[in-house]
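Protocol step 4 of 6: structure prediction from sequence.
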Amino acid sequence: QIRSQIGEAAFRAQFLVCVKRCMLVFKREAAVERLVHFIATFTTFPHKEENGIDEELIVWLLSAIVPFTHAADKAPRFRACQIVSRVLGSLGEDADLPEELWDAIEAGMTPRL
């Protein structure tokens, strides 16, 4: 409901600010872990008006987060990998993400293995 009131662009900008804020904490604090879980759940939760998950929101979020997997600081790198992992783990079998995004995720996550 908030998304429709303030507009999609404003919502995404504020949502990304919140996501980036949690990426600064390296310690596995309970509040940050719950926020990461919320981010994955919120982005992959089926919304009533869209009859399924909002794949555009997922693509946008992952596209914004994947570059942080190459960060020099270990805190954003760790949280970016954690968020990407949780979102991908929450997606269903029928999720359709662009090939370019999969390539970027693979390039960002492979060095972390």
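Step 5 (inspection) to follow. The mean pLDDT is 87.
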